[in-house]
Amino acid sequence: MNTSNQLWEANRDIAQACLEHPFVCGIADGSLERQKFSYYVGQDAFFLEAFARAYCIAAAKAPDWLGFTTFHSLAGGVLEELQLHQGYATKWGVDLRSVTPGSATRRYTDFLLATAWSGDVGLTAAAMSPCMRLYAFLGQQLASNGIPNHQYADWIRTYSSPDFIPLAQKLESLVESYAANSSSINSTYRYAMLCECDFFQAAWLNSD
Questions:
Q1: What is the sign of the dihedral through the CA atoms of 11, 15, 16 and 22?
Q2: Does this model's pTM top 0.90?
Q3: How far apart are CA 127 and CA 125, in angstroms?
Q4: Could you tell me if 167 and 74 are in contact, meaning their C-beta atoms sit under 8 angstroms apart?
Q5: Annotated catalytic sites, by residue?
Q6: pLDDT on residue 195
Q7: Which CATH architecture has domain 3-205?
Q8: How far out from the chain centre does Cα 18 lie?
Q9: Which of 57, 190, 77 is nearest to 134 (CA)?
Q10: DSSP per-residue string spanning 102-160
Q11: Per-residue pLDDT tens over the stretch 53-81
């Protein structure tokens, strides 16, 4: 089993907790309060901006051209996802220019950017990989019986899309190229997974 799969399997407990979280369950069946989803959209847009910056920092530090171009390609994917969030924001009445990041969002983005600036590219890839792998997992699980017809169908469609999974795999290929399984890699990956769970919890409470 490669490093990425080992890390994922070691943290399946958190992935399952995210799948069973009432916020994600509310997206699954369409019952989530609009206010909670609106809060999430704003926070996630702020997060994705930091995510794109972390990709670019890692690209600049990549030791070879393939790593450089792969990190930049992934940053482009985040910019496309941000365009999707702009559409969500318009639909849900969220002004992304006035979003104030909550403490759970800040903890996550500060962690990612600090890792990108201070760590090597393998550690950065390990810090960023849980987000992509988790969302691919959630999308596939929520779409396992078909895309539902409700207000959050587009969210499920996006993360269950055949176009999204290769992005997660591309990031995991960077983990394989630059990260060796170590206590530092394991603790970084798990902390990012915990940040994901905290992110859903903050959106569910709609406050920090």
A1: positive
A2: yes
A3: 5
A4: yes
A5: 131, 196
A6: 98
A7: Up-down Bundle (1.20)
A8: 12
A9: 190
A10: -HHHHHHHHHHHHHHHHS-HHHHHHHHHHHHHHHHHHHHHHTTT---SSTTHHHHHHHH
A11: 999 999 999 999 999 999 999 999 898 88
